[in-house]
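Researcher: Next entry in the queue.
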Amino acid sequence: VFPHGWDKTYCLSYLEGFKEIHFFGDKTYK
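Model: Structure for this entry, 30 residues:
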């Protein structure tokens, strides 16, 4: 399903960045 370069560390860092963006967006929204 994922490209060969997508390992668990990349997935985790991507999810962490997504949560950070979502968190900051939520703060600015409120």
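Model: Residues 8-29 form the longest helix (22 residues).
Researcher: Noted, moving on.
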